[in-house]
Amino acid sequence: MDRATQGSAGLAIEHLQVNVPVDSLELEGTLSVPTAASGVVLFAHGSGSSRRSPRNRYVADMLNESGLATLLIDLLSEDEQQVDLQTAHLRFDIPMLARRLEAITEWLVRHPDVANLKAGLFGASTGASAALVAAAELPNLVDAVVSRGGRPDLAGASLERVEAPTLLIVGGADPVVIDLNRKAMAHLHCEKELQIIPGATHLFEEPGALKKVAVLASDWFLKKLR
User: Fold this and answer.
1) Which residues, other chains included, contact 87 with Cβ-Cβ below 8 Å and sequence gap of 6+?
2) Do residues 37 and 114 lie in contact, with contact meaning Cβ atoms separated by under 8 Å?
3) Rounded distance between C-alpha atoms, residue 218 and residue 225, angstroms
4) Where are the domains of the chain?
5) At CB < 8 A and 24+ separation, what contacts does 94-98 make?
């Protein structure tokens, strides 16, 4: 059900339940649009997650508070999610996830509530690699990318073609992923930045860690999407 809320900064935020046609499916999502939004961010959730991810919802809420619209959406149908719970196969199908993100992005930039806004992608875990592939395929539609604890290395050769300014955020207590992000960063030729949050593990569950992610992401998107 569509609803409206009042943000702590006094912004009115409209929350619209949407269904996006992709691959003969209709994927469910929530489009949240604050008053006078200055950009829109599509979230690509990570392995085994969905639009209900509490971490992505927390970050999305903070982006809304800063004046950015957000779209939290499932990348798999309910049936696919059930299959993936058993096999863990679809969550690593980066080309398929990227194709869906591309289709959702193309739908999003035509939506009347956000059609005049620049668009960014926020990817977590494997969703970050799908976001980077989608950004490489849609250079005229994607204006910024943020990765949280992501696996940009899984984007492969697409990294070389990403044009959107890209921020990689990694926990300081996640050494394997730090190394993978540094190696991937060497293949990015766009504006890029790596931010390491001291003491944070892969899921940023430590007190204050996720808030730091949200602040970094908000600042990046506000600068790049205005």
Assistant:
1) none
2) yes
3) 10
4) 3-225
5) 94/126, 94/129, 94/130, 94/133, 94/154, 94/155, 94/156, 95/133, 97/44, 97/126, 97/127, 97/130, 98/129, 98/130, 98/131, 98/133, 98/134, 98/137, 98/158
Kindly state the greatest CA–CA separation across the chain: 45
CB 142 within 8 A of CB 108: no
**Mean pLDDT for the chain?**
91
User: Which CATH code, of 3.20.20.140, 3.40.50.1820, 3.50.50.60, 3.30.413.10, is assigned to 3-225?
Assistant: 3.40.50.1820
Average pLDDT over every residue of 81-99: 75
Global pTM exceeds 0.70: yes
- How much is the pLDDT for 86? 66
pLDDT of residue 45: 81
